[in-house]
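hi! just following up on the protien thing from before. the input was this:
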Amino acid sequence: MLTKFDKFMNWVRGSSMFMLQFGIACCSIEMMHTYAVKHDLDRFGAGVPRASPRQADVIIVPGTIVTKFAPRMKRVYDQMPEPKFVVSMGSCTVSGGPFQEGYNVVKGAEEVIPCDIHVPGCPPRPEALIYGVAKLQERIANGESAPVTV
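and the predicted 3d structure came back as:
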């Protein structure tokens, strides 16, 4: 059962999220469009991208994750303060995408860090990422924790 203070804190967390992006592959180009003038993710309370994981609430992971990169991604995730949330963006991050048969490709970010929102697509459009962030805000405000594919 949530108290009024818990509901207030969840509303604050959902309304003012600080993002950390990993520009790994082609999905990062679409992610950059999301912050541009046409889409402007900042108007939804997703904030200015942060340079340090210690300042971020949400990490957006776009693109293919290779085995050499996985421990570094885990280390960055561990440096984030609680509560922390993860948005996996693109088919490569969700399941390995067209490279899933590669010997050095991780078959999804879930194998390395827990993901809260999965945004499928190759690459997903900025509207899909905005929808995923809106769903994350809604889930934070409601106190939900199970992962969701949008």
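The beta strands are 19-21, 58-62, 85-89, 117-119, 148-149.
The CA atoms of residues 33 and 126 lie 6 Å apart.
cheers
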